[in-house]
Amino acid sequence: MATAINSDLWRTSGAAAAATAPPDRLPPGRLLAFSAVALPVAAAQMPLNVYLPAIFAQHYGVPLAVLGTIFLIEKIWGAIADPIIGTLSDRTRSRFGRRRIWIAAGGAVFGLSALLLFFPLWGVTPLYLGLVLFAFYLGWSMIQIPFLAWSGEISHDYNERTRVATYQLVVGSAALLLVLVLPTLVDQVRPGDGPLKLGVMGGLLLVTLVPSLVLTLRAFPEPPLPEAPAQRLPFGKAVRLVASNRLLMRILASDFAVTLGQNIRGTLFVFFVSAYMGLPHWASGLFLLQFIFGISAGPIWMKIGYRLGKHRAAVAGELVQVAINLGLLFVMPGQLGLLVALTVAQGFAQGSGNLMLRSMVADVADAHRLATGEDRTALFYSVFSISMKAAMAAAVGIALPLVAWLGFDPASPSNSPDALKGLLLVFALGPALAHLASAVLVHGFPLDAAAHARIRASLDQRDTTPNPIQA
Questions:
Q1: Residue 99 backbone dihedrals phi, psi, to 5 degrees
Q2: Which alpha helices (H) appear in 27-156, and where do they start and end?
Q3: Which long-range CB contacts under 8 A does 406-414 form with residues at least 24 apart?
Q4: Angle between helices 352-372 and 126-151 (to 10 degrees)
Q5: Rounded to an integer, what is the distance from CA 370 to the centroid of its chain?
Q6: What is the pLDDT of residues 291-309, one digit of tens each?
Q7: Is the pLDDT of residue 419 over 60?
Q8: How many CB atoms lie within 10 A of CB 205?
Q9: How many angstroms separate the CA atoms of 82 and 368, rounded?
Q10: Which residue ranges traverse the bilayer (predicted)?
Q11: What is the pLDDT averaged over residues 253-272?
Q12: pTM higher than 0.85
């Protein structure tokens, strides 16, 4: 029955959706305020992945093997925490709502653990680092997963959800830009001062945390709670529920491929610019340039999504990424002009797929609620978060061993031409193939604007119709 309902909805014509009156647009000021918490959350991403391991190894004496083990365990813990938090948030019923209370509590855990992580006044031991990271990832999940679910609930409109995700993408990109700039400035004033660099990044996170939490929690009211909380799901049943949702699995697989391509490029970027191009002094600047243009990319792709629809815009963005990465094959050592042009283009295309796919998760959650009566929005977003984290880990696990197998040695002052050619091929073809896979996976996605308009109409009608049993 549910399959028949959804099939009918997906066959709805575009004219039917166009006949639906457009909703009131969410106020830009409130959207910006709601997106504020993305700043400290995104600002934590770059230090954890790039700076913290090196600083703890060089300045606090934590062995590299121990660091690798601790960060691996904590990433696994973060992936486990996401669906737990998502399920609990979906089931929460309180007078403060079911998203706001988790975000506020997560902010307290996140802030306290960030203070201990970025300002280790009593030194850093493996036990200390493991416990602090445990709390840090827990607080991060408590903020991020309910926030993403709430993002899909403040508007039920197909295009407005893209707009909500766009504001968050821009705020998150701005945070990453700040985190890239600050360590660069520290290196100019106090070269090699790891603790100062750590404190500056942690200071940005802590200074922005409380104001951003206040802005986010006050920006919009939470939607009314469902008449009944979502049924409690054992872990195995939750896995089967997610795996059986073909639309969600397509989005997850597509997002995994997007993030894999982005992180293969990010992992090898410094090696490529320094070793292959022979321009080590340009590595940080080009990486920064990409992020600067990436901030302006969100609104551009939002407009494209309005015109083409989310899945078509995602396909277009991924194909642009394929072309840009294939263009890198024609870059010769020392040829800065073409590399700058491709880096700028990469910035404009950056996040196109992530933006559309994130918005599509809420649409799939609506289809699931219509078919089953269960609201699993936060659970779906938590699994979406796992796919991103898994892809980030896979990128490092694929790219670095592969270029090493091809003969590239980052510590060598002069790699062979064959080794450098291998680095170029992985740097260019790896992301190109990943972005192509992402486009193929989401091509022809059936839940378009027309189908979603019918789903929302059915949900709104059901939500406003009195239950005859209760009556």
A1: -105, -45
A2: 28-34, 38-43, 45-46, 52-60, 64-91, 100-118, 126-151
A3: 408/271, 408/275, 410/271, 410/275
A4: 70
A5: 27
A6: 778 777 778 888 888 888 8
A7: yes
A8: 23
A9: 20
A10: 31-48, 60-80, 101-122, 128-152, 164-186, 198-217, 256-276, 282-301, 378-403, 423-446
A11: 87
A12: no
190 dihedral zone (left: phi>0; alpha: psi -120 to 50; beta): beta
Domain residue ranges in the chain? 27-222, 233-463
User: Hunting for tokens 């001062």 — which residue is that?
Assistant: 193
Whether the Cβ atoms of residue 420 and residue 276 lie closer than 8 Å to each other: yes
Distance between CA 171 and CA 167 in Å, rounded? 6
At 418, which amino acid appears? D
Inter-residue contact 152 to 175 (CB < 8 Å):
no
Decide: 40 and 212 in contact? Cβ < 8 Å.
yes
Task: Quote the pLDDT of residue 16.
Answer: 37
Backbone φ/ψ region at 240: left (φ over 0), alpha (ψ -120 to 50), beta: alpha
In this structure, how many other beta carbons lie within 10 angstroms of the beta carbon of residue 201? 25
* Helix (H), strand (E), coil (C) string for 150-200: HHCCCCCCHHHHHHHHHHHHHHHHHHHHHHHHHHHHHHHHCCCCHHHHHHH
Fold matches, 27-222 and 233-463: yes
Give the distance from CA 148 to its chain's centroid.
Answer: 10
pLDDT in tens, 349-393: 877 777 788 888 889 988 988 888 887 887 888 877 778 778 877
State whether the Cα torsion 64-70-72-78 is positive or negative: negative
**pLDDT tens digits, one per residue of 386-413:** 787 788 778 877 887 888 889 888 767 7
DSSP code at position 227: S
Which helix H or strand E contains 3, and what residues bound it? helix 2-10
Query: In the CATH scheme, what architecture does the domain 233-463 have?
Result: Up-down Bundle (1.20)
